[in-house]
């Protein structure tokens, strides 16, 4: 399953200069519920890799608090609130999709 979450970016970020919204997208294995790949529309590879490494191998619902805490405590870019918002949106969309699929 491919799930995307969105949030508005501040214009003070590099990504905000290129796009209005941040996307956090995850490919989630339906059997295990774990993220097998992830990406963002963050402007730098380093920031994208930080989020990617945080998400891969996690369960977006079960590990949500740990992921949010890590973002709050360890990501100090101007886009932190947008990343957190996009991740929360991703979790909400994932839960809706699972519910629709009966899982």
| Rounded mean pLDDT score | 91
Number of strands: 3
> At the third CATH level, what is the topology name?
Sufe protein. Chain: A
Strand content: 15-25%
CATH class, anyone?
Alpha Beta
Main pleated-sheet profile: 3 strands, antiparallel
Using only CA atoms, what is the Rg?
A: 13 Å
Q: Counting H and I runs of at least 4 residues, what is the number of helices?
A: 4
Sheet with the most strands: spatial strand order: 1-2-3
Helix content: 40-55%
Keywords:
single chain, 103 residues, 20% strand, 3 strands, alpha+beta, 4 helices
Fold blueprint:
Blueprint: E1 2-8, H1 14-18, E2 21-28, E3 35-40, H2 45-55, H3 64-74, H4 80-101
Antiparallel strand pairs: 1-2, 2-3
Helix pairs in contact: 3-4
Task: Give an overview of the whole structure.
The chain has 103 residues and is of the alpha+beta class. It has a single domain, classed as Sufe protein. Chain: A, CATH 3.90.1010.10. The protein is 48% helix and 20% strand. It contains four helices and three strands, in the order βαββααα. Strands 1-2-3 form a three-stranded antiparallel sheet. Helix 3 runs antiparallel to helix 4. The protein is globular. InterPro entries: DUF3870. This is DUF3870 domain-containing protein. It comes from Pseudonocardia zijingensis.
């Amino acid at each position: 399953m491919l799930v995307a979450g969105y949030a508005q970016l501040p214009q003070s970020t590099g990504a905000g200069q290129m796009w209005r919204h941040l996307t956090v997208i995850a490919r989630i294995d339906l059997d295990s519920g774990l993220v097998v790949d992830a990406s963002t529309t963050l402007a730098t590879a380093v920031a994208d890799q930080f989020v990617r490494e945080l998400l891969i191998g996690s369960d977006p619902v079960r590990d949500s608090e740990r992921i949010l805490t890590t973002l709050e405590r360890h990501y100090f870019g101007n886009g932190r609130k947008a990343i957190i918002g996009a991740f929360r949106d991703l979790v909400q969309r994932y839960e809706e999709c699972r519910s629709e699929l009966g899982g």
